[in-house]
Amino acid sequence: MAVSREKESLAKVLVHEGGYVNHPADPGGPTNKGVTQRVYDGYRKGKGLAKRSVKSITMDEVGEIYDRQYWDAVKGDLMPDGVDYVVFDGGVNSGPGRSIMWLQQALRPVYTGPIDGVIGVGTLAALKAVNNNDALIDRICDARMNFLRHLGTFPTFGKGWTARVAEVRAIGKAWATGEKPQAANFIAGGQAKALVEDAKAAPSTAPADLATGGGVASGGLAGTLTELQNQISPLSYSSELIGKVVVALAFASALLVIGGLAYRWYVNRKAKRLAEALGTAPA
Prior knowledge:
The chain is mostly helical. It has ten helices and three strands, in the order H-E-E-E-H-H-H-H-H-H-H-H-H. It has a three-stranded antiparallel β-sheet with strand order 1-2-3.
């Protein structure tokens, strides 16, 4: 991009972030203007300054933190108009590395490198090869929403995140096409940090393994009883009873095996979708 859009982008992000918050369910903890206490502590320590509450952060400190830890981290000045803002906003909300991963996912199949959250030569080359940044922004925002829906905190903050991403999408696409973007609005809940540490756990395959194993065991027992039945006179009552037990066991075995395999398929599909949302699925 010829002219940096950092100041304009920061103005929009600060509206979305709002002021001081400390929601008990927000993994970011105490946060002011989008800067968490942890980030502020690190910044003050790097300056040789004493710790203090993020409530007291100055606008000069806010500008410097956003510039170094977010805009520069996503290489905003090397990105196309609109894309720079979209990736920047995502970096503030979920971390620069996570936002870069959404960009890399959105650049497929032009981008063939790993989804590693690092902007290198391959990512920048893929960016230059894209000739429709409007559509690219849609894909970035879609990847971001897919990630958010797989967080355990989505039931609490999902409405705010969804509205925020919708605005980010609209603003980014307006900039990408040279139009005047809409004003940003503060949306309650949209400022909560959306971190990968809060991702839902992949479902366990243990129930599937247990069901399949039980089915195989039942089938083995049915086979043993069949052999016993063959040793008893087919006219005897015991032989008839064993035959009924064999049929019941065989039926139960089939149900357990089929149920176990079906549940394993379901678990694997859920795990694949989770990996895709988190950017950990193989290319």
